[in-house]
Amino acid sequence: MWGPDQPEPAQPRHTADSITDDALTAARTRHLPDDIAIHYQNAVNAVVAAEQRAERAEARRAALKRAHVALAEQAGRNQAALDAVRKLHRPAKDWSWKTFGCNHDGAHAQSCGRCKTCHPCDTVRALDAHTTPTETT
Ligand SMILES: [Zn+2]
Ligand SMILES: [Zn+2]
C-alpha cells in the first residue's frame, strides 16, 4: 500500500494520442482490487471487440455500396448499348413494303431499316426474347 509520504513509482508518461489501450487499462486498474480489475479488463475487451465488429460491418456496408454503384453504372451502359442496337433496327418507312408486303401472309407490315427483311428482324427478336425496350420505335 502506498502511503501519503511514500511517492508512487514513476509511471511512463502518455498523451491522449500516444497511450495504448493496454497502458490505459493498466493506469486505470492499478489501484483496484484484482477481481474488480478483471471485470474492468473484461468490459474493456468487450467494448474493443464490439468496436472491431462495428468497423468490419461498416467496411462491408461501404464495399456493398461501391458494388451497387458499379452495377448500376454497368446496367446504364448495357441499356444504352441495347437502345442503340434497337435504334439501328427500327422499322423502315418504306411505302413499297407496306404496299406489297412480305410473303408471310401479310404478317409483317414493315421492313427493318437495317436488315431490309421483315420487321421485327432476327436482331430485334433476339433482343425482345431477353429484354424490354425502353424507347418506342
Ligand atoms: Zn434488323
Ligand atoms: Zn414477313
Strand tally is 0
Question: Which residues sit in consecutive blocks of at least 5 with pLDDT less than 50?
Answer: none
Give the rounded overall mean pLDDT: 85
What's the Cα radius of gyration? 37 Å
* % residues in beta strands: under 5%
Q: What is the helix content?
A: 55-70%
Question: What's the helix count?
Answer: 4
Each distinct ligand: zinc ion
Structural class: mainly alpha
How far apart, in Å, are the first and last alpha carbons? 91 Å
How many strands, which pairing sense, and closed or not: the largest β-sheet?
Answer: none
Instruction: Choose one word for the global shape.
Output: rod-shaped
Helix-strand string: HHHH
Number of domains: 2
Architecture overview:
By secondary structure, the protein is an all-alpha fold. It folds into two domains: 15-88; 91-137, no CATH class. The protein is 58% helix and 0% strand. The protein is rod-shaped, with a radius of gyration of 37 Å.
List the helices and strands and how they pair.
Layout: H1 21-29, H2 34-88, H3 95-100, H4 122-130
Bound molecules: zinc ion (2 copies).
